[in-house]
Amino acid sequence: MNKVDDNPSRAERAHATRELILTAAERLFAEHGVLAVSNRQVSEAAGQGNNTAVGYHFGTKADLVRAIARKHLAQIEEIRQRMVADIGDPADVRAWITCLVRPVTEHLAEVGSPTWFARFGAQVMTDPTLRPILVEETQSSPSLVRILSGLNACLSDLPDDVRAERYDMARQLLVHMIAERERALADNTPTPRASWHDAATGLVDALVGLWLAPVTNDS
């Protein structure tokens, strides 16, 4: 009779350690900012006695940030692809904006409280050295390219400078409003909406209003 080996393999142990580090780093980065947290603090929070564990498993802090982003964005991409495939009217601005907002909120709802990814994203997006990482990882999404193309087609009457300005405004709302709700949930303080689904509805409403707002010509 063959003896069953209950000991995890080296690869399984390495994977488990990586997951512990990713979770600890995401939480610490979200709560304190990326630059304020050392690799040693991440290792300690992940229960690793070896202070070089972060460098061994991920390399630089930038590599760690990219790994956290990829872990979540891969799951968000699956939801977004499904929503894009279900769009009925390609001329519906709300439909495209819904595909921008709801994949993120649906993912956070699925993860369950507490979550840290929204606040992590807000911290990274306000760091000029790390922001390109998240922008690059996000822009590699095939479904996001399709959404932006569809949205542009709906808004072809907007002047180029106004469209660019409203993209910047929309990004600020998308990043920071979701992070603000996540922060309120973590702090157990009141939120304007009862659920992530309802919060997404409010954000979609606001973004539709932003995109379809009149353009004032001061010249």
UniProtKB/TrEMBL annotation:
It holds the Pfam family TetR_C_30. It comes from Lentzea indica. Transmembrane segments: none annotated. Residues 21-68 form the HTH tetR-type domain. Signal peptide: none annotated. Keywords: DNA-binding, Transcription, Transcription regulation. Residues 99-209 form the PsrA tetracyclin repressor-like C-terminal domain. InterPro entries: Homeodomain-like_sf, HTH-type_TetR-like_transc_reg, HTH_TetR, PsrA_TetR_C. This is TetR/AcrR family transcriptional regulator. The lineage of its organism: Bacteria, Bacillati, Actinomycetota, Actinomycetes, Pseudonocardiales. Gene3D superfamilies: Tetracycline Repressor, domain 2. The keyword Transcription regulation applies.
